[in-house]
Amino acid sequence: MMSYWDYGFTLLAIVILSSYHIWLLWKTHHQPLSTAIGLSRRIRKIWVKQIIAENQALLAIQTLRNWTMAATLLSSTAILIALGILNVAFVTESEPELAKLIDYLGYPSENFWLLKLITLSSDFFFAFFNFILAIRYYNHVGFIITVSGHEEANIGVESVTKILQRGANHYTLGMRGYYFSIPLSLWLFGSIWLLVGSLLLIVILLRLDRFV
């Protein structure tokens, strides 16, 4: 079973993280240039226009290759971590003594410990799924951006930009999965550490989401 402290701190951490990202979505939608996400979208749109206008196909492929390599590394790491955590969940019979010692306010529960591990593993599976989707869209852009100037292709700047933005959105979501792993990892040591990790993450994101 869970104590009232576990319920309270866990719920508060969820509310804090959810509220921040709801505010970020609103800010990005209404004041896009005030956030790193909105500004990056504007820069990518200008980049596509310039690449097509100046016929810089080689530069486009090199840039897309760098993005794809980064997404590949992050997706591979995410799936390995996710499977490793699942392995721990299957072979661990109870919560480790270290976690019990640090969890001052929690109530030892084997089911709750397994829930924490599964949640953390799911977070990395979420990151993995988004990174492989980012790779998919980047590969599409690599093909269509080189033929966008041909009449037969019937592909304009807006079409290329839309696909690139989709890939970038999935890349951003994948990175959010890595960011969320900070408080979720601390959650293994107790709900109060989940709350501390969530507050720490918000402080970091407040800066990251304001500057590119």
UniProtKB/TrEMBL annotation:
The chain crosses the membrane at residues 7-26, 67-92, 113-138, 184-206. InterPro entries: DUF599. Keywords: Membrane, Transmembrane, Transmembrane helix. The keyword Protease does not apply. This is DUF599 domain-containing protein. It comes from Candidatus Nitrosacidococcus tergens.
